[in-house]
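Typical record is below.
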Amino acid sequence: MSVKRRQFTSQFKAKVAMEAMKGQRTIGELAGMYQVHPSRIAAWKKHLVEYSAMAFEESSVQGSDRSSPALMAQLYEQIGRLQVELSWLKKVWTGRLIGSVRRWMPAILGCRCGGSVNYWDYPPAVGIIIGFLWIRRI
């Protein structure tokens, strides 16, 4: 039987962290009062201290709204370039792998067929072993 983990809302975390910041009660007392582990309260307090300055930064909120379409266009362009590069690399390396397997298959399997081996005539396990051996050679 699995135990479902408790999930706390951000309002609850902020409330507990603010009480910890006030210092009127110890973290142990707050942990007992809210049924939360003291390390969680300490982590929430630390998070509140680190990111409280962001509440007063107006430029970050306004700047993100203005630069959002330009940033999105730039990111989509980069995604497109990376997809084209990935497809090209897949094509190139797949061709090299198949060529290498065809070239090395007779030597690996001990055949004397002069290199005219069809890769697909062998079971998948042989292909996996050949692929592993090919990768180890790099």
